[in-house]
Amino acid sequence: MARFYNDLPFQPISQFYKERFSGKVYKIPVTVVDDCPNRRGLKGMQTCVFCDVWGSAAQSESLTMGLREQIEKYHARIARKFNADQFLVYFQAYTNTFTKLEALRINFETALSYPFVKGLVVGTRPDCLSKAVLELWEEYHRKSFVAVELGVQSFFDDQLDFMRRGHTRDQSLKAIEKIKKETSVNLGIHLMFGQPGETDDQIIETARICNDLPIDNVKLHNLHVLTQTPLEEMFHRGEFTPIDREAYAHRVSLFLDHLSPRIHIHRLAAYSSRWEELVAPAWTSDKMGTHQFLIDYLNQQNSYQGRLFKNL
Ligand code: SF4
User: Which domains does the chain carry?
Assistant: First the structure.
C-alpha cells in the first residue's frame, strides 16, 4: 500500500507546507467581510443551503473585531497551544473578493506586517474574480505566499442548484483556468460530498476532473446541517438526509483512489467549529474520531490516493 507523509494514505497539505516553509505553518482564520453575492441576493441568488449566519467562519466573534485584533488574538492562542511560530492569515468567511480592491490591499498589507505571518490564504467563489483581483493576488504572490481556496463544491449543475450556489460547473472550470493562466498563486478547491442522489460514478468523475485541472489541493467536506440554514428547514421537513459516516467514508475512498497523487489534501471531512450549531449528522462533531474512522476505513479497504489513477 502506498504511504505518504506521516504514514497517511493520502498526500496531506502539511507535507506541502513543510517543504514550502521548512516547517509547520498554522492558519489564523479571520473575517474581514460580512457579505457575498448570494446573501446580497444579486441576480436572484439565495443564501447557500448549508451556510450559517457566520458565512462559514471558524470564529463567529470575529465579525465584531478589527483585523489586527483578530490576528493578534488568534496568533497568541495558536502559538501558545502548538508552540507555533509560522502562520498564514486565512481570509475565510463569506466571499473575500466581494469588496473594494483597496480594502483587500490594506488587509493584505496589515496581515503581512506581522513577522510571524508567512503568507495569505483567500477564500472566494468562482464568480467573484475580477481582473484587478487576479492582478492583486499576483502582485502579492511575488512578495509572499498567496493561496486561493475556491468554493467549487460540485462539478454537477443539479447539485449546485440544490445547494443554491448560484454558479455553474462551467463557471468553476473557467475560473480555475483563469486563475492559473493569470497568476501563480497556490490554488485549491473545496468539494462537498453527500449530495442527494449522488452516485459512485459522480465521485469518480469528480476525481478525474480534478486530475485534469491545474489545481494544487482539495478540501473535502460532507454536507452537514447547521442551525439557521435553509438546509435545516429541509432536514426538518424530511427533504434532506445527511450522509452517514460509512457511506461518506466510501465516497472519500473512491475519490482518493482515483485522484492524482500530485494533489494535496487539506482535510477529509467537515467539522462543525461551533458544536451547538450542528443539527446533523452527529458524527460531524467528533473531529478526531471521524478523522481516525476515515483513515481506518481507507486502510481496511487498501485504499489510498492514486491507487486507480491513470495518467493518460
Ligand atoms: S457559502 Fe459563501 S457564497 Fe454561499 S451564502 Fe455562505 S458566504 Fe455566501
Answer: 5-300 (3.80.30.30)
**Nearest atom, ligand 1, residue 51 CA:** 6
Cα gap 181→137, rounded to integer Å? 13
pLDDT tens per residue, range 207-234: 999 999 999 999 999 999 999 899 999 9
Q: How many residues does the chain have?
A: 312
Residues 183, 175: Cα–Cα separation, whole Å: 12
pTM above 0.90, yes or no: yes
State pLDDT tens for residues 108-120: 999 999 999 999 9
With a 6 Å cutoff on the Cβ, whether 49 touches ligand 1 is no
Residue pair 204/233 in contact (Cβ under 8 Å)? The answer is: no
pLDDT digits (tens, 9 = 90+) for 66-97: 999 999 999 999 999 999 999 999 998 777 77
CB atoms within 10 A of CB 164: 16
Residue 55: CB within 6 Å of ligand 1?
yes
Per the DSSP assignment, residues forming a β-bridge with 119 are: 88, 145
